[in-house]
Amino acid sequence: MMNQEKLKGHLLILAANILFAINMPVSKYLLPEHVQPEALTSMRMSFACVMFWITSLFVPYEKVPLKDLGLLCLCALCGVGLNQGLFIWGLNTTSPVDASIIATAVPIFVMILAALILKEPITRMKTFGVLLGICGAISLILQSTQGSNQASSLGGNLLITVSGFMYSIYLVVSKPLTLKYSSVTMMKWMFLFSTLITLPFAIESIWNTPAFHKEVFDGQELGAIFFVLFGATFVPYLLIPLALKRIRPTTVSMYNYIQPIVASFIAVFIGQDSFSVTKLVSAALVFSGVYLVTQSKSRADLEQQNSQSFSKNACNMKNNA
Question: pTM for the complete prediction?
Answer without folding.
Answer: 0.77
